[in-house]
Automatic annotation (TrEMBL):
InterPro entries: Metal_Hydrolase, TatD-like, UCP005295. This is TatD DNase family protein. It holds the Pfam family TatD_DNase. Belongs to the metallo-dependent hydrolases superfamily. The keyword Hydrolase applies. Gene3D superfamilies: Metal-dependent hydrolases. One of its GO terms (molecular function) is metal ion binding. Keywords: Hydrolase, Metal-binding.
Amino acid sequence: MRIFDPHIHMTSRTTDDYERMAAAGVRALVEPAFWLGQPRTSVDSFTDYFDSLVGWEPFRAGQFGIRHHATIALNPKEANDPRCAGVLDVLPRYLEKDGVVAVGEIGYDSMTAEEDTAFAAQLALAITHELPALVHTPHRDKARGTERSVKVVAESGIEPGRVVIDHLNEVTVATVKDSGCWAGFSIYPDTKMSPPRMVEILRQFGTERVLVNSAADWGRSDPLLTRETADLMLASGFTDDDVDLVFWRNPVAFYGQSGKLELAETEAGASFEGNSILRGGS
C-alpha cells in the first residue's frame, strides 16, 4: 500500500514518526504552514519557519524515503495579529521555491475582517503563482465558516478544482462537493473525523475529489491514522484500487496541478547545514 498524506505538520513530530510512517507505507506528504501554538512576534520568525519547511524538513523526511512538500501562507489565526501583516509581502518569493505545491493554510479561524483580507489576498497569490490553494475551515461554527469559504473562493475567480477545503465533517461535505472544490478530511483520535466516520462518508459521497489526511501536529493526533483508515476501507468492502485512489492518486492529482510535485525515490544526504538526524557516537 502506498500513502500520500496531503496535510501533516511534521515540524511538530519526531524523527521516529517519519520512521513509523515509512514502515506504514507513507511515501510522500505535504506540510502546510500553520500556527505553531503560540504567537509569533515578527515577520522574521515566519521566514525562519518557512525556510525550515523547504530545507530541514525535506532532509529529515528523505532519510526514510519520504518525499516532503510544503504549502506556504499566513495562517488564519495569525492574520489577526498586526505584527504579522508583513508576511503577505514575503510570500511571493517562497511560493516560487521548489517543493512548494500550494498556498496554504488560508481561510478562517474566527471569521474576522482581517481574516477576510488575508484570505482574499492569498487566493489572488495562488492565481498569480499558478498554484492550488489549501483552505482551513474554522473549528467553531464550522458550517457557517465553510459556506463563507466557498463564497470567497467563488468570488476570487480561482478555478474550484484548484482548491481543497479541509477539516470537513458530515455537516459540511455536501456544501464543498457541490461547489466543485476538493473535499479534505482530517482523521483525529478524538475530534474532527474518525476512521469509521470517514469510511461512511466515502460510501455515501464517493472517492472522487477527496483528500484524507492525518493533520498530525503538536496536539493529540496520530500520523498513522491515514493507514488505519485505509485498512478500514479494505475491511469494509472497498477495493485496493479505491484505497489507492484516495490515498495516492487523489493527492497526486490535486497537488500535481502545481507542476512542482516530485515523487521520484529520494536519495538521503548525510547532513543538512552541518547537522544530521543521528545522535550519539563513540
